[in-house]
Amino acid sequence: MSAPALTARSLSLAGCHDCGLLVRMPPAHAASCPRCRGTIHTRKVDSVRRCWALILAAAVLYVPANVFPIMTTTSLGSSRSDTIMSGVLYLLQTEWPLAIVVFTASVLVPLLKLLILGYLLYSVQTRSRRRPVDRTRLYRITEVIGRWSMVDIYVVTILVALVRLGELASVDAEVGAVFFGAVVVLTMLAAQSFDPRLIWDAMEAPSQGERPHE
Question: CA-based, 20 to 30 A from 1: which of 9, 40, 114, 190?
Answer without folding.
Answer: 9
